[in-house]
Structures are given as structure tokens and as C-alpha cells.
# Entry
Amino acid sequence: AQSVTQPDIHITVSEGASLELRCNYSYGATPYLFWYVQSPGQGLQLLLKYFSGDTLVQGIKGFEAEFKRSQSSFNLRKPSVHWSDAAEYFCAVGARQAGTALIFGKGTTLSVSS
Amino acid sequence: EPEVTQTPSHQVTQMGQEVILRCVPISNHLYFYWYRQILGQKVEFLVSFYNNEISEKSEIFDDQFSVERPDGSNFTLKIRSTKLEDSAMYFCASSLPLDTQYFGPGTRLTVL
# Structure
């Protein structure tokens, strides 16, 4: 079955500390991979995506993610977290085919302490 | 930067009533989607739409749901007879072929 697992429901990091949010997927073939962020009461904003090529992808707001095919993972990282990064983060996968569904993980809530 | 817009931002309705949620996708996009997120749960796919036809739908998208592109700019989701369990945030998204899905801000539907 196709699925996305985000093992950490809630993470708290100190402002300025590094961050890694985990994402593992189960999919029939190599999918497209995405990270979206959702602030309270807001929609889903794309942080970054992996389609092909370099397995380390850069996104907005200083985020990056690394696709590891052997581990079926697409972990999100940021070297220094800012208070404004507090939000819910969703990993998603989709088929390499137009118009198909994205499958989302349950999300990780990030809190930032001062 | 072009963005997906949705109206209304919040809709309250009585159980059994029909609701129509509206979306204006990004103008040059060809694929349109609806997702929902029940409070505290993950985002779930409902349906995708291309060339005036449904291209994929989930088990959630039963006969109570329908989608339409009534003109060149709007994309709507209709729920014919709302149930309490339809209460959720509904997100519209659009994309180019084989490209990123861009999401709107959502419509919060509350069924009383």
C-alpha cells in the first residue's frame, strides 16, 4: 500500500538550533516528493520538491531535503531554526503521472522555543 | 505570483443542505484537485479533474460529491446533502502536467 510516515508528531527545538524532520514513504515506484508547510489557519505552502536529478534539494526559507532511495526517505532539514518556522510540516508523495493524488503524511508540528 | 483562491473562507451549513465550494485555479494550469483535512487529521485526496472530466477520485468521493468547471476560471466542489462528518477544511489545488500542485488557502466547512 502507498503511504507516507512522519514518525514525529511534535518536535520542539530552540531558536537557532538545527532541525531535521523525518519522512519515509512506501510507493510502487520512485515518486515525486514534496514538503509543504501549514501555518495555523493557513493553506499549504510548498517548501521544496524532488522530481529527479540531484538528491539534495533546496527550498524556500532556508530549508533543504535529501532523497535517499535506498532508505525510502526524504528528510527535511534546516541548519538554524527561526521562531517564524513554527508550523505544521507535511511530507507528500505523488506518482510521476499528471493529475494523480498526492499522498500526505500525518504531519509534524514544530514548536520553536526561545 | 499567481495563486489559487478559494471562497468562502468559512461556510456553516445545516446537515442535509447542499453546499458549493468555489476555487479559482492558477490561470494557465490544466489539472485541478480537491483535498480535505478533517481537524487533527492528515490531508486526504478527493478528486482530480482535467479536460472537463474526472481523472482520478478517491473512495471518499462518493455520489454526494460532484465537481464542475462552469466557466474558464472557476472550479467547484458540490456536496449534495451534507453530513456531520463532512465538516473539514477543503483545499483546492491546481497544477501543470507533471508539475507541483499549488494549494489554495482552504474553505472551512462546518456542518451543524
